[in-house]
Amino acid sequence: QVHLVESGGGLVQAGGSLRLSCAASGGIFSNYRMGWFRQAPGKEREFVGVISRSGITRYADSVKGRFTISRDNAKNTVYLQMNSLKPEDTALYYCAADNNLWGSSYDYWGQGTQVTVSS
């Protein structure tokens, strides 16, 4: 059982930057594929990016070149660095963990942290 807690959200002007953190507990963090997702009001949850156990990343086209995911296994933490933010990035941001034991989807989810980008 893994508990995930996101932090670092807030209000920022367009063009600005934020770094989100997701702290994990209750499992062997280095064994998990970690993903970031977001959901805007009235919209479906969408994929933002993912980082593998070995540090390989991939991103949604909408954020590629602006967002960067990294992980620090010693701190049991995954990060989402967001640069050149746009109003369209406004959403509740979630981290999620895939234990790599069954399927290829996500087994654990955080409660989210709000990011609001003003124009």
Low-confidence stretches: none
Q: Element order, helices and strands?
A: EEEEEEEEEEE
| Quaternary structure type | single chain
Approximately what portion of the residues adopt beta-strand conformation? over 45%
Radius of gyration: 14 Å
Number of helices: 0
Helical proportion, percent range: under 10%
N-C termini distance: 40 Å
User: Major β-sheet, in short?
Assistant: 7 strands, mixed
Which secondary-structure class do the elements indicate? mainly beta
Which shape, going by the Cα principal axes? Answer: globular
The overall average pLDDT, rounded, is: 96
Strand segment count:
11
List keywords for this structure.
single chain; mainly beta; seven-stranded mixed β-sheet; four-stranded antiparallel β-sheet; 51% strand
Architecture overview:
It is a single chain. With 119 residues, this protein is mainly beta. It is 0% helix and 51% strand. The chain has no helices and 11 strands. The strands form 2 sheets. Strands 2, 4, 5, 6, 9, 10 and 11 form a 7-stranded mixed sheet that branches. The N and C termini lie far apart (40 Å). The relative contact order is 0.32.
Explain the layout of strands and helices.
Layout: E1 3-7, E2 10-13, E3 18-25, E4 33-39, E5 46-51, E6 57-59, E7 67-72, E8 77-82, E9 91-98, E10 108-109, E11 113-118
Parallel strand pairs: 2-11
Antiparallel strand pairs: 1-3, 3-8, 4-5, 4-9, 5-6, 7-8, 9-10, 9-11
